[in-house]
Amino acid sequence: MIEIHNVSKSYGGASYAVRDLNLTIPSGQIFGFLGPNGAGKSTTIKMMTGIHAPDRGAIFINGKNIQEEPLAAKKTFGYVPDSPDLFLRLKGMEYLNFMGDMYEVPSKLRLNRIEMLAKQFDLSDVLGDQIQTYSHGMRQKIIMIGVLLHEPDVWILDEPLTGLDPKSAYILKQMMREHADKEKTVFFSTHVLEVAEKLCDRVGIINKGNLQFCGNLQEMRDHFKSDASLEKMFLEMTDHA
């Protein structure tokens, strides 16, 4: 479960990147966070994961305040950043073992999970290569495997499908659905509206730091009194906000 209460963030005292944001994402849901470039999506995610501190407000991950109990909160979630260009000099297996050590995943269990996930994402043959030799999509997949090693209850994914080949994107979407069906939480940002329309239980639309809508697709259609696509309703909300 994710709870965001009256959270605001500005940079250098200028205009707000996020303003008075309130969101509750219960367990058992895939929640899509949508918005144009610069709308506040990544800033929100960085506050959720403790990378940035909010100016005011509070964020709870599975009941743990990310500011007051950062280690306890971080043990409950896995985070995929918007850029996979991390630890490039490490070999794939070195990176995964590093992640396993960080989250205290026992060696035997770790190896079983790495073998299974690497096979799913077609990375088994390159785990001995340096990450800097990987393509963007391969880097995205190795980061995803590292996130899943400790089987976190909450997934926080910033544009996770960017750069993935169709097979890997399909597998990840299946995994997201299966995770939510186990009464766990998936929060992901995306600009691919078709994916959000098909995959998400609920969506939030943010623009210029302000939440424009939160709910399911039918609730959005009721709000607009329209049978339009998510794309059309999204453009109407963000063009005039």
Any key phrases for this structure?
globular; 241 residues; 39% helix; 9 helices; 4-stranded antiparallel β-sheet; 6-stranded mixed β-sheet; alpha/beta; Rossmann fold; ABC_transporter-like_ATP-bd
Q: In words, what does this structure look like?
A:
The protein is α/β, with parallel strands linked by helices and 241 residues long. It has 9 helices and 10 strands. The strands form 2 sheets. A 6-stranded mixed beta sheet has the order 6-7-8-3-9-10, sandwiched between helices. Helix 3 packs parallel to helix 5. The mean pLDDT is 90.
Structural class: alpha/beta
Q: Please name the fourth-level CATH homologous superfamily of the largest domain.
A: P-loop containing nucleotide triphosphate hydrolases
Quantity of strands, as a count = 10
The level-1 CATH class of the largest domain: Alpha Beta
Secondary structure: elements and pairs:
Blueprint lengths: L1 E9 L5 E10 L3 E6 L6 H8 L7 E6 L2 E2 L4 H5 L2 E4 L11 H11 L4 H14 L15 H13 L5 E5 L7 H16 L3 E5 L3 H7 L2 E6 L2 E6 L1 H8 L5 H11 L1
Parallel strand pairs: 3-8, 3-9, 6-7, 7-8
Antiparallel strand pairs: 1-2, 1-4, 4-5, 9-10
Organism: Ectobacillus antri
GO molecular function, one term: ATP binding
InterPro entries: AAA+_ATPase, ABC_transporter-like_ATP-bd, ABC_transporter-like_CS, ABC_Transporter_VariousFunc, P-loop_NTPase
